[in-house]
Protein: Tryptophan synthase beta chain
Amino acid sequence: MTSDSKILLSESEMPRNWYNLVPDLPSPPPPVLHPGTLQPVGPDDLAPLFPMALIEQEVTTERYVPIPEEVLDVYRLWRPSPLYRAHRLEKALGTPAKIYYKYEGVSPAGSHKPNTAVPQAFYNAAAGIRRLTTETGAGQWGTALAFAGAQYGLDVEIWQVRASYDQKPYRKIMIETFGGTIHPSPSNLTDAGRKILAEHPDSPGSLGIAISEAVEVAAQHADTNYALGSVLNHVLLHQTIIGEEALLQLAKVGATPDVIVGCTGGGSNFGGLAFPFLREKLAGTMNPTIRAVEPASCPSLTKGVYAYDFGDTAGMTPLMKMHTLGHDFIPDPIHAGGLRYHGMSPLISHVYELGLMEAVAKTQKECFEAGVTFARTEGIIPAPEPTHALAACIEEALRCKETGEEKVILTALCGHGHLDLPAYGRFLAGDMEDHALSEEAVATAIAGLPRV
Ligand SMILES: *Cc1c(COP(=O)(O)O)cnc(C)c1O
Structure:
């Protein structure tokens, strides 16, 4: 008899706390610095952009942060999310490995992003804020924040990276259906956007540029705050609901992961899945290998430097110590728009420096190949981002086939690809390019790092 395909939790079993990894680490991550004074930023420096509740979560040393009842209420629309055992993929690969995937595509946006969009909108509304600005790449984050804004009566204004805005028109319609406003970035609406357009009228945009535009508008209006969909500590904190649920689900079937893989853009779905398991690893109750997978065209962990850098292109944000390719690096327009970010979450970067996780880079075609194999076996068409994790899952499962090891592999299938079908069309037509960043390009990119 085979075991169940879906491992489900009831709504009453949903975790009621987010998990903060920081107090369990052997050393805390380096502080975020003010770009003018180069001193650690204080709450007042961040107050023009974020409500105090989120600033407190950004720096908290508490191990657990309670999830507000008003947030749990919205989470119940799709959470707890299912954990699947990939029986059909295992069979197709002929592997003795057991593959589990936590599916976040069941959310309103079709990805893990609402896990943090909902609490961010909640805390901003509670602080009397009327409007949120943000950036979006592929459009997942913009969709999630537009949905979350609708839950608490907030206006949401979004700058979408031009390349994705043109490639993915249905995201715009989805965002507008949820009540959000969307502009292509770079735009003529901000100083940051106008400056880029003056030099590069055909700029495909980047997440760094779109962040500059959204931050600029939020900083100029008292009733407007900014929301970020990845990278920051409070975002990773909110995403730990993924890993906390997965721990309970695996316990139900008596499984312990040997390998955890996830894709990393800014690191939030990866951290959200992995950190609760890292807590167990640090406590000695399990010992999984934790592996991040990034695109070879934007390899911040595997090829970037660990240094203080800006989060945006214009250099308006505080300086964060992270693995970075330089804040003015513009990655090739690969289809995994959510993975096109020059830096990595400071917390993930710190964990990587501590040697608690590893990282690999994959090129686009191998990832789409994995996405198609997954779709044909498990029946879900993955977003281009998690195909990176799936490619690494398949690689590990095939290694197990050679060695005969029955490893338990866990991944986050962090979104579905229903609005990314043009990318699959290109792949199926044999019309897709592989992009890998050369050593020379890396050297040029990081030459512009601020000297701290
Ligand atoms: C945004 C996004 C990503 C990249 O962001 P992380 O913070 O690294 O998770 C990956 N996958 C999907 C589906 C996304 O929407």
